[in-house]
Structures are given as C-alpha cells and as structure tokens.
Specification:
Order of helices and strands: EEEHHEEEEHEHHHHEHHEEHHEHEEE
CATH architecture of the largest domain: Up-down Bundle
Radius of gyration: 23 Å
Structural class: alpha/beta
CATH class of the largest domain: Mainly Alpha
Shape: globular
Number of strands: 15
Strand content: 15-25%
Length: 392
C-alpha cells in the first residue's frame, strides 16, 4: 500500500499543495513551524478521519482562507494504491455560514471514496498508516483516555466491525447516562435501563474482545522489538490489558461471555450509577498497563526507556497491520529520528525495508543522513511549498 498523490487545499499552513509520491522512502526537511507535522497529520486524518491535534474541525481550515474566502473550506485528497486496486479518498471541512464580518464558529465534514459520498466510517481503513510522533510518549505516561484512543485508532483501521461497535457503544453510553441523570431527578422508570444495558453489553463485548486480542499480539511483538531497540535483555517491556470489568479476563475471550459479564456488572452497580448519574463499568473506562523491568513505565521508567517502549509498540503495530491485511501500512515518522542515538535510529529505519512507503519529517538534514538512507527521495518544505531536492 502506498500514496501516489496527495492534494491539500487550505489545510492549516497549506493554501495549495500537490505531491506526487512513489513507493519507497521520502524525507521532508523543514525548519520548525513550516508545517511538517501538519502534512503528516493530514495523511493521518485521511486514514482515520481523526486529527492528532487538539481543537475543533474549524482549526483545520487555513486562517487566511477563513479571513478571505466567502465560504472557507479545507480539502484533503489522496490517491491510494493497494493490492486490491486504486482508491480515491477525499475529506472536505466546510466552515458554517455566519453574518458578514463575524468569523465562523463551527464546521462540518464531508467524505468521499472514489467520488461517492460516504460516511466517515467508510473512509477508515481505505488507507492504513502507522504514525510515530513525539506525542506518542503520552501513550505511556498520559491518562487512560490516551491509551484507549491509541487502541481505537489502531484497531479501527483493521476491523470495520470494531469501529461500528465503538460508534454504537458511544451513542448508547450517552443515552444511558442521560437516562441515569433523569432518574436521579425522579423522572422515568428504572426498568428503562434494561434496554440500554443490553445494547451497551452487546457492543461492549465486541470492543473488549477486539482490544484483548490486539493487546495480546502487540504486547508479544513489542516485547521483542524493545529488546532489539534497547540492545539489552536486562529489562523487559510488558503490556497488560485492564478492562473495566469485575474479575480477570480469561485466556480465551468469547463475546457472548463478555456480554453477560458486562450486563451483570451494570445490574450490580446500577444503584451506584444512579447515585452518581454516570456509567462506571465498561470499555469507556478500560486501560493498558505498561511495565519495564517489572516497574510501572509511567512512573519508574526514564524518558529514554519510555521513548524506546513507544517505538517498540509502533513497530509491533506495523507487524499487526501486515499480518491482518497482508498489505503493509504507510509509515509516518514525524520528527522523531533526531532525538534518537545512531543505533536506535538505524533500528527504526530498518523497518522501512519491510513496507512499501515511508514519509519522514526532520528539521535536520543529517538525521537521517543520506548515508543512512541512500535511496530516499528528499524534499524541502518552506512557506507551505514542497520542493524536490537533487539526488546525491
């Protein structure tokens, strides 16, 4: 799998960018604040419909387009070559209408696959990416929501049923929490919760089963990758899935059994949920525990150990994507190589030879150097424009 063409119109720092790409390694050199991360984040969004940046959809639209255009919009387009054929993907973010002289406060999104209007969920997985960035450290030392988000993005690209269950679960959770608040105000009947409990348990079982299987695979491969990256066997990386369910998760996870367990937990904890006005059990409270050398990685590990652990996890994600689909994902390395020592940098770059396409951003032309990646195509990014650099 690889991108053959990328077009960005009015996307953050890019007023107009067109980039023709071939399989292989592409290195994009740029000083800070020139849009390196914006470029890779746009590709990430075309793959997952999610941006890794905080803020609203309106923030995706270039500020000068918001200022100058009567109906400002950001457009991202990509042509993706896969073993099954060519796919054309498009996301348009359109600012909401407002009164003259008043800036817009909201935006809507539209999606197309091969020129046909589709839902956001239909776009996910058409392009699969694994993105390495400096923000990845928050998977280790950030709140549980960051680890759930990581799992959701990773699994959704590989499993459409998971994405559908996740969307359904989130809708049902909102309805159940709304009903809990109404019941706390003595509006409605408690038996109304039975329907939402059944719906939550059914969708939740699919989510928990998929997460358990993904973590099992990722933990095994990440442990091996960590030993390679750290160049030592003295410390071991472990990842343990911690679903928000009573009791331990069995070795063999069955959706039917999980649904019954979620439903039972909701029944047992109903009185406390009513008192608090919120659902306290289920996948929306899951976590993943990372340890290095038997100690909590978020607390005891050094920054270097944490960075190595995240790199190992991302490399394991590449292997998971390849094994599930038979087609390697596109690798996006966002300004991480300059912070690695030569040994770790080379070990990360070695994975480039196992996929079809890699895009690397860097502020330093020597990291990675031409000697480290002799066959790479190199570009210079400045003022929103990308220029190919001569070979050699």
């Amino acid at each position: 799998m690889h991108l053959s063409h990328l077009t960005l119109n009015n996307v953050r720092t890019f007023r107009r960018l067109e980039l023709a790409l071939s399989p292989g390694v592409h290195v994009i050199e740029a000083e800070n604040a020139q849009g390196k991360s914006n470029l890779l984040d746009a590709i990430q969004m075309l793959a997952t419909t999610r941006t890794l940046r905080t803020g609203s959809d309106l923030d995706l639209i270039a500020w000068n387009a918001v200022r100058d255009d009567p109906l400002p919009a950001a457009r991202m387009e990509a042509i993706v070559e896969t073993r099954e054929g060519r796919r054309a993907l498009e996301i348009v973010v359109i600012a909401g209408e407002t009164m003259p002289g008043i800036p817009p406060t909201r935006a809507s999104r539209r999606f197309r696959v091969n020129g046909v209007a589709r839902r956001a969920s239909d776009l996910v997985g058409q392009l699969r990416v694994v993105m390495f960035s400096a923000d990845d450290l928050s998977i280790i030392d950030g709140p549980p929501a960051n680890r759930r988000r990581y799992l959701d993005i990773t699994i959704s690209q590989l499993n459409p049923a998971y994405l559908r269950a996740l969307q359904r679960y989130q809708r049902v959770l909102e309805q159940r929490n709304s009903l809990l608040r109404r019941l706390a105000e003595r509006r409605g009947r408690q038996d109304e919760l039975d329907f939402w409990d059944d719906e939550l348990a059914e969708a939740g079982a699919i989510i928990v089963a998929a997460r358990a299987e993904a973590i099992r695979r990722l933990a095994r491969d990440a442990a091996a990758k960590y030993v390679e990256l750290a160049a030592t066997e003295a410390e071991q990386l472990e990842a343990c899935y911690e679903p928000r369910l009573p009791g331990d998760l069995p070795e063999v996870v069955r959706e039917h059994d999980l649904g019954a367990r979620i439903r039972a937990a909701l029944q047992v904890e109903r009185a406390e949920d009513l008192r608090r006005g919120m659902t306290r059990w289920g996948p929306h409270r899951d976590d993943v525990r990372f340890t290095i050398g038997g100690h909590p990685a978020a607390i005891s590990a050094s920054r270097g150990q944490q960075r190595t652990a995240v790199l190992a996890l991302r490399l394991a994600e590449v292997e998971l994507s390849k094994s599930r689909t038979g087609d390697p994902p596109v690798l996006l390395l966002d300004d991480i190589l300059s912070e690695l020592d030569p040994g770790r940098r080379q070990r990360v770059l070695n994975v480039a030879y196992g996929v079809d396409q890699v895009l690397i951003t860097t502020p330093d032309a020597d990291r990675p150097s031409r000697e480290e990646l002799p066959g790479a195509t190199r570009y210079r990014l400045a003022a929103g424009e990308v220029t190919a650099l001569p070979a050699g």
